[in-house]
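INFO  loader      accepted 1 record
INFO  loader      residues=637
INFO  predictor   begin
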Amino acid sequence: MSLPPGFLDELRTRLTLSSVVGRKVVWDLRKSNQARGDWWAPCPFHQEKSPSFHVDDRKGFYYCFGCHAKGDAVTFLKETENLSFMEAVEVLAREAGLTMPDRDPRAQERADRRSQLIAAAEEAAKWFRLQLRSAAAGPARDYLARRGLSPEAQDRWGLGYAPDARQGLFQALTARGLAADLVVEAGLCARPEDGGAPYDRFRNRIIFPIRDGRGRVISFGGRAMDAAARAKYLNGPETPIFDKGRTLYNLDRAREAAGKGAPVILAEGYMDVIALAEAGFTGAVAPLGTAVTEDQLRLLWRLAPEPVVALDGDAAGLRAGLRLVDLALPLIEAGQSLRFATLPGGQDPDELIRARGAAAMQQVLDQARPMVALLWARAIEGRVFDSPERRAALDKDLRAQLARIRDPGLRAHYEQEIRRLRADLFGPTRPAGAPRGTGRGRMQGLPPPPAAASASARASALAAAPGDDGSRLIEAAIFAALVRHPGLIADFLPDLEQMTPTDPDHAGIRAALLAAAEAPDRLDTPVLAALAAQAHVGIAPAVRSDDIDFARLCIAADLARLTAHRGARAEIEEAIRDLDEAPDEVLTRRLSQAAEARHRADRPPTEDSPDMGEDRAALSAHLQKLIEDQIWVRKRR
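INFO  predictor   done
INFO  writer      dumping tokens
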């Protein structure tokens, strides 16, 4: 449905953003300025202790300087409560005392139908719980008791029982006035192909209610009591209210727990989640009978920036972990990844906790490994690297994997860690008893490495790794130009977000510029004033010029130079790390390439170097004009 013009503006006028956000955060009153509607708190979207989450009531906009979450009141409700856009608007409208405009008739029908389906699922949950207390459910209660679940725990999780009857649930629900079509559409019953009366989907099974992010029952999972059943676990089908690839078991409770600082743990199934939560790990969730999907992975990251995946300690658990690594690689970014905890002895979390208690589970979680560890383990598992060709094949495989990481900064860190692991594997020594020439130990019997770099190479100017390669001055020029032309901040917001300043003062300037993206008039802090007063930035063309288009070109060119400088620095640092292995000619070649990259970046624009196309030509012409006007000469009044 489309909202009439002005409705959202009226909604935002009646509600302050801080009143909406304040239900999920604890404000830092020392940093906040309540009179100005300027609020700060630890971010509700990722775990942190410092208040980097900013709410501006005047603009109705929030932004986190840590995880870069941003939006308005509608966005906040969508992200924190897993609501659709219209659901979030409806919640805010009720709080503001506004009447929702008339819906499109078809949209209203769909919303009403969803409400009816959820009501049917809630009625089914009550009936299943009642059946668990019946005489027929004795074996089910005994099974749950053997799994360590007391009657109180069963009630907490709303567990139930589906009797071994063809139409037990169907007759119970229709007797309460629910239409047969509604019961079928909710996924509770199914129609036979011959068109006969609907029959129950769940029979002789322990029932686990599946809830959405708001705690409403939307489907069920059932564990068979008959060992001969075709499926040990059975989930409800896809329905208008249940998409198994877009939700997680225990999502509603885990979201609340994560907001209070509990670690988020991804387990395999219902019993694992219940066992973890009952043992105190209340942030546990699980997929619903399928491999983890991209949507579920993004749900996990909404709960915590680095969830822990609890892998069953068997081959199937490891395969599941590696599939998740492949799914996550293109999606990870700085501060957003996964860790993997492998349980011992082929156990799952439920078995480990029942056998050795919560402390043993905590120890496993404390030893969780980063994604790069699984990536490396898979690459070398069972392989022999006794020839250059085999080692080159390893390098090729790893390059292909790392190329899938979209964040260039993060990819560079992965490459650095892979180089470290590779150096350890192919080092000159190996631990006693380690297999020879396999992926499980360091390589032996290889030809000696090339002669180390000579003393003259080590003493070269480039190898000396000067502390400042000019990046700091370029950063200062970029920041000063944005201070001079604050209207350009929004144009370069992605570049600012990805930038890692070389100077601590610059980190504060970057944060101030990001905060000013929506409010350029707030660029009056002392640190920015000090920056603009520095001589080396005060004469920068973009700072001296009033031409905003020219300033845009200068900033873009400086950003390109900064990228080239940092690429050259990375190449030099890598060459320095290889001083003990690389011969002079290799070192010289790599350092020469780095120097040429910097030279190309710093080379003045010419017609023979049209890398910037028309922008470069325009920049060159404008720079020539500035030279002719001698803008660096102070004009006398």
